[in-house]
Amino acid sequence: MGKHAKNGRDWRLGVLAIALALIVWQFIAAVIIRYPFILPAPTDVALAFVSLVAKGDIFIDLGTSLVHFAIGLGLALIVGIPLGIIMGWNRRIEALVDPVIELLRPIPPLAWIPFAIIWFGLTSFSAGFIIFIGAVFPIIINTYSGFRGVPRVFVEAGKMLGCTKDRDLVRYIAFPAALPSVAAGIRIATGVGWMCLVAAELFGVSNFGLGQKLWFYYSLHQMDSVVVYMILLGIIGLAFDMVFRSYVDKKFLKWRTGEVA
Amino acid sequence: MKSSAIMAIASAAVVLLLLVAGCTQPSGTSDTKTSKAPVDELVIGYQPSTHQMAFITAMEKGWWQQDLAPLGVKKVSDKVFPSGPSEMQAMQAGDLDVAYVGAAPFLTALSTGLDAKIVAGVNTQGSDLVVRSGLEYTGPESLKGKTIGTFAVGSIQDTILRDWLKKNNIDPDKDLTIAPMSPGDAVTAILAGKVDAVFLPTPSPSTIVNQGKGKVVVQSGEMYPNHTCCVLVVSGKLIREHPEIVKQIIATNDKAVSWNLQNPDEAAVIYATKTSAKLEDVKTSLAEWDGSWASDPNIIVDPVLEYAKIQYDLGYIKKSLTKDEIFDLSFYQKS
Amino acid sequence: MGDLVIQGLNQSFPRDDGSRLVVLEDLSLTVQDKEFVCILGSSGCGKTTLLRMIAGLDLAESGSVVLDGEEIKGPNPKVGMVFQEYSLFPWRTVIDNIAFGLEMRGMPKEERHRVAEEYLELVNLSQFRDSFPSELSGGMRQRVAVARALALDPVVLLMDEPFGALDAQTRNKLQIELLEIWEKTKKTVVFITHSVDEAVFLADRIIVMTPRPGRICQVFSIPLPRPRDRTDREFAELRREVLDLINQHCSIQ
Questions:
Q1: Which distant-in-sequence residues (6+ apart) come within 8 Å of B8 by Cβ?
Q2: Hey, which of A88, B251, B257, C208 would disulfide with C218, CB 3.0 to 4.6 Å?
Q3: What are the CB-based long-range contacts (under 8 Å, 24+) for C231-237?
Q4: Domain residue ranges of chain C, discontinuous segments joined by +
């Protein structure tokens, strides 16, 4: 009857849950708090959304943010995956690089803003850099632990079958074996990187962007518009994750146990 | 769960939603009980600008504590903010009783429901347009196509800058880029040569000039003569319940202003210590700025109403504000 | 063709206390072309180490492994191996697993798939051509592993307890199938096991090893004709003979 989605959950229950949450929110905002600065109601947010769409900026904001995100994630992939492969394959390099990574990783992307300004100015690249800081570490770590975790028997079987050069071992054996881990790293990085968007657009890199507008309306204390942009950020983050799960997992990782139909 | 039960819940929910729709209005003065509960802790918000030196002097010399203790205030503490909008957020959330803040951010907050009033002025003018070294400036025209870093939208600096550009036939949205950022980031940007100009309150311009990275080309008094900058804002609750405290706050502020004018060097040291600014930058800014400390709110009524109109025209606030909504002039007494 | 001459292999590892753990001591062995040899021994007797040296995966401290006059110094296309653990590449289909060695040789796709299909046929799994290893049972996976090792047409096939993880019924079935394949392909086989029953069923000769240090204790010839019958009296006698000798002479000191 189509009631049950592929993961077995009734999608109508999900819709009902969201509807109930909206009602509770409306009630608290309209009846209990009655101060739209402290808590704008869903109706206020909906009205703000309509007027923002009418203004038209929202689409440019979305495009601008996607550009910032693409720059950041793209850089993270270009730097993170090769570095993770080298670290996973060569223990001496891992021993050298790992302490540096562990030192840098806990520094929040927000703290890099002054350097972003000094090195890259007020450009999209600067915003992308902040996102890069958030996204690169999950990619490095998941990539090298994926490579580290390649079962030795695969490498030896490969050698017995004529795959002896290091370069070929990485390409034909280690990388495909590590791919689920690498994919997991990319998925985490996508989520973390998207969350850095608000920090990335805090310091005047552009007059557009979902994060930029969030701060813009915050400065004017128009919290209903702030919530609109918060929700947009959440929905798009969710969309990325869903695309990852359905497309990437299905296409590239269907050989994993239990996932083949 | 049976589908009929789901339908029943859904219908009830829709009905409930319709009933409460559109019921959100600022509750304004929601607490009508005028309890004369003593004020345990008074929290004053401020920004690290020499505009607000009076507050800092009084704080570091313990005058707030001293003068307000007889009125029942057990403790006075302060909170620092990088800019006006965030300071007003805190006041809206109830974290501040008193705020030294720019008039413009106060107005935007007022229009979204902040329960507070301006009871006195703090200073006029005092912001500079600094152009990075190496850039030629021959007039406002030189700014076309450039990027100017300044406070966030809705601040005094943003409001005055846009207004001045418009008066000089420059479209602030199309002919150049105004990049909103915190003052710290703005100074970083111009020191690194990554932004063409910044428009900031003192002492930041002196920091930039003293490092040889820029020159002051226009002072805010030139953009808008005698414009109001920072004002003294007090929460509606404090006004209603403890008018005597409000009176004393203004008096203490004035005491600090006089002392600062008579002891500028010592005042500079106090300021530099509290805010970790370079003493040299503070001294330069005091010597060079075009601002003055002025408490009489009556003389700023018209300029502030003018701001409200500008902000309304810019679309920053959604309704026009009246004098009585903005000011409470009863506390100030000409000394 | 598949003559394997192993001479004086020595291998040891350093212990924490500075002394050395001798894994193989002066081990010498000859395997004839097309012979099916089983290496029998308990855990720790060095049988896997010996096999890995024939494979070229490890190098001995001293001694040599010579195949048809050439010394083995590293993985060699003449030697194929079936590992104890499941070693099929899970991201490749069955046919692509079998064709892997051919792909490494540079054989174009159509040709290598054709060759691979022959070996798939040999292990009776043609209808699982496009399945992934995760879809196969343990026994099926090891059969594919055999096909993969044979696809490069090695002279010697090494097998390290390949049926150890399987249930008894599947094991017996696969033993019969392996003998059929061996008869068809005429490879030299070196097969490690710790089951006396399996060794007597499969081997021309049984090499019994003992641990600490790893060395050859006894060698048995099993002259029984194939196919062998486990219930046969001669089979049972031979099995008892081997077991007794192991317990008397070759048990752990």
A1: none
A2: C208
A3: C235/C200, C235/C201
A4: 4-78+155-249, 88-153
The domain locations on chain B are 41-125+227-326, 127-223
What CATH number belongs to B127-223? Answer: 3.40.190.10
Closest to A134 in 3D by CA, of A102, A112, A103: A112
C-alpha dihedral sign at B164, B165, B169, B173 = negative
Q: Which residues of A touch C152 (CB under 8 A)?
A: 161-162
On whether any CB of chain A is under 8 Å from the CB of C235, the answer is: no
* Of the candidates B262, B229, B233, the residue with the CA atom closest to the CA atom of residue B156: B229
With bands split at pLDDT 50, 70 and 90, how would you rate the model's confidence at A86? Answer: very high
Tell me, what DSSP letter sits at residue C195? -
Number of neighbours of residue B329 by Cβ within 10 angstroms: 15
**A122 interface with B at CB cutoff 8 Å:** yes
Q: What is the CA radius of gyration of chain A?
A: 22
| Tokens found for residue B237 | 């609750």
DSSP C41-105: --TTSSHHHHHHHHHTSS--SEEEEEETTEEP-S--TTEEEE-SS--S-TTS-HHHHHTHHHHHH
Evaluate the CA torsion angle B44, B47, B48, B49 in order and state its sign.
negative
Residue B95's Cβ-side half-sphere holds a number of Cα atoms within 13 Å equal to 13
How far apart, in whole angstroms, are the C-alpha atoms of residue A73 and residue A143? 15
* Superfamily per CATH, domain C4-78+155-249: P-loop containing nucleotide triphosphate hydrolases (3.40.50.300)
Domain ranges within chain A, ordered by starting residue: 1-34, 42-252
Q: Which chain A residues contact residue C87 at CB under 8 A?
A: 153-154, 156-157
Chains in contact with chain A (at least 3 beta-carbon pairs closer than 8 A): B, C
Q: Let me know: does A29 contact A216? Beta carbons within 8 Å.
A: no
Residue B332 pLDDT > 90, yes or no? no
Asked whether the predicted pLDDT for residue C253 surpasses 90, the reply is no
**Type and span of the H or E element at B219:** strand B214-219
- Whether chain C has a CB inside 8 Å of the CB on A148: the answer is no
Quick one: average pLDDT of C95-118?
94
Identity of the residue in A154, A159, A164 whose CB atom sits nearest the CB atom of C89: A154
Q: How many CA atoms lie within 13 A of A229 on its CB side?
A: 26
Chain B residues touching residue A122 (CB < 8 angstroms): 147, 149, 179, 189, 194-195
CB-count burial class (<10 Å; 0-12, 13-18, 19+) for C108: exposed
* Residue closest to A83 by CA, chosen among A102, A98, A99: A98
Show which subunits contact C, needing at least 3 CB pairs below 8 angstroms.
A
- CATH homologous superfamily for the domain A42-252: MetI-like (1.10.3720.10)
CA-nearest of A38, A28, A224, A231 to B17 is: A28
| A227/B contact by beta carbon, under 8 A | no
**Contacts A35 to B, Cβ<8 Å:** 26-27, 30, 113
- Given an 8 Å threshold on Cβ–Cβ distance, is A156 in contact with C83? yes
Is the torsion defined by CA of C83, C89, C93, C98 positive or negative? Answer: negative
Residues B98, B75: Cα–Cα separation, whole Å: 14
Read off the tokens for A243. 């695309």
Q: What is the token pair recorded at C24?
A: 């193989």
Residue B32 has pLDDT above 70, yes or no: no
Flag whether pLDDT at B333 surpasses 80. no
Element holding C221 (H helix, E strand): strand C215-221
Mutate to test the interface with A, among B9, B24, B88 (most CBs of A within 10 A): B24
Task: Answer whether A191's CB lies under 8 Å from A135's CB.
Answer: no
B-chain residues near A34 (CB < 8 A): 23-27, 30
B203: cis peptide before it, omega within 30°? yes
The CATH classification number of B41-125+227-326 equals 3.40.190.10
Q: Sorting pLDDT into bands at 50, 70 and 90, what band is B4? A: low
Answer whether 0.95 is exceeded by the pTM. no
Count of positions (residues) in chain A: 261
